[in-house]
Amino acid sequence: MDKNKIVDYSEKVLEVKNLKKYFKVGVGKNKLVVPAVDDVTFDVYKREVFGLVGESGSGKTTTGRTIIKLYNPTEGSVKLNGITISAGYADHIEKIKNIKKQAKIDILSLKASELQKLQLKEKAEKDIEYIRHELTFLIPKEKEELAKANLPLDEYKTKLYELKNQMKLDIETIEYDYNIEVEKIHQATLNKAETEMNKELEILRVNYERKVEGLKDSAALSKEVINERLQELKSNYEADIERIKKEFSHQIIEASAEVMSKEDAKAKIQALTLDKKQKIQKVKEKYQEARNNVVAPDMNLVKSNIQSVKEKYKNLRKEIFDKIAAVKAQLKKDLASVVETQLSEEEKRIVKEKAKAIKEKAKAAILVEKQHIEEAKRVNQSSETLKASQKMQMIFQDPISSLNPRMTVREIIGEGLVIQGNLTNEQINAKVEEVLNLVGLAPEYATRYPHEFSGGQRQRIGIARALIMEPNFIIADEPISALDVSIRAQVLNLLTNLKEQLGLTILFIAHDLSVVRFFCDRIAVMYNGRIVEMASSEELFANPMHAYTISLLSAIPQPDPDYEKGRQRIHYNPSMHDYRIDKPSLREIAPNHLVYANDKEFEEMKKRYVKSDSKK
């Protein structure tokens, strides 16, 4: 077997560890931090195709763009071929804050009464945070119950909307048929031969006027010659008019017998108009009858149900806020009951010395964290990192917007080599020709522009641009999602051939599980910036464990009409997880099969996995 077809699990090409990418939006009180990628860890091995799958907004593309350094990571590190190419340092900044906070706590704890107060405050904060978390469960439940209470009104409005739309459509159809019949009558009142003659005369007139204008504007002829030719042109024009009229005179007489009189036409149009009005009236009456048959909901009952739901959740929120107020009141009472510790002069001196030691220790710890931050900044900006990153390239999702419309194919593909500045134009041209042949495009295409190609050809150009840098690792960011179904297969086959021919390692980002199933060796499923499940393609499809993965799999259509009629879509509801106390993490449920769950969920998954395994 060809060596380039076998995944080498002893050599890691890409190592992503605790990768985070947060975006800050808004200012002041409206400032938010959006965790687009939140603590993602995975490895990609030599010659492996690793799939990153999820719905739009799951964070998969942001992960790819952070790996290739289009975004700087907030935290975590990325290694390519054993070299760290990017690193974040937000956690180190957070650690510095925590060190300062802990130092403050340690100093306060040197005095018994202050320590007791601190412990009381910390306990109250935890209790309040736990209670506040209950509010997050109330919001979706309230929306669901309000929608249910308002359902009769929504159904009533929908039915009326459908009836009105049908009425409009029926009236438009009647108007359309009426206009066609009126036009037929109008045509019947015209002499067809006379109409044809008029067309011929109009063409003759236009040609005559153009020739006249051309002669008048001529600078090469004398005025006398121009006048002479104009006179000749006019004589010929008049003769042609007479000739055409003579040719059509007999036809006009014959056709006049078939012409409908204006009186007959008027009578027919009046009859059609009356018929149209009657039909429209019937449609309106039918609509009104159907509208009257639609039973309106009891608005008082609907309003009452909505008000009941609002009151219910208002009271539930009040209960939560009352609990928080009770915790705060109890804290105030407990703090007031703490007896202040009285220290002697000697005890004060000892406390002062210990506080100094705590500060020195904190300074040393902060210095270590600052060194980590400086190292991360150095890695992100160093020329060595930039050089190592060149072994990684990206194929972008949109083959139209990712290509510069003002550059030729040769300039687009060879741009990376031009920036490096190591090769002559002849060498660059030769390499461009080589990669064009590699992706199945003729070398002659190098002089064309992107708009002259189809979508599939543009994507091949994008692939060629990546390959010319001779990478060993490629990030393919949904390279087929913008293409037609038939073209998708061609691009996937091309990527497969290139992987086997060049021994490439690929990170394949997609939202379609049915595609990655047959193209990828391993798959990681992402949701809300996190990897929720990771396994080999075969294992993931055979034993999906996380609820989100099961939901994605249920959405895959099958080429079986009977199956599709009965296929049930499984909807994923993130509120099904309770992570307030029992925190989740990626855990191994089977060899190389990781799933994101807390202790309770993991035990249930293990039972389910054993059952599904025993059935086989």
Core attributes:
12 strands, alpha/beta, eight-stranded mixed β-sheet, Rossmann fold, 616 residues, single chain, extended
Describe this structure in words.
This protein is α/β, with parallel strands linked by helices and about 625 residues long. Among the domains are: about 35-60 and about 395-615, 3-Layer(aba) Sandwich (Rossmann fold); about 155-295, no CATH class. The chain contains 19 helices and 12 strands. Strands 6-7-8-3-9-10-12-11 form an 8-stranded mixed β-sheet, sandwiched between helices. Strands 2-1-4-5 form a 4-stranded antiparallel β-sheet. It is extended and about 135 Å long. About 20% of the residues are buried. The mean pLDDT is about 90.
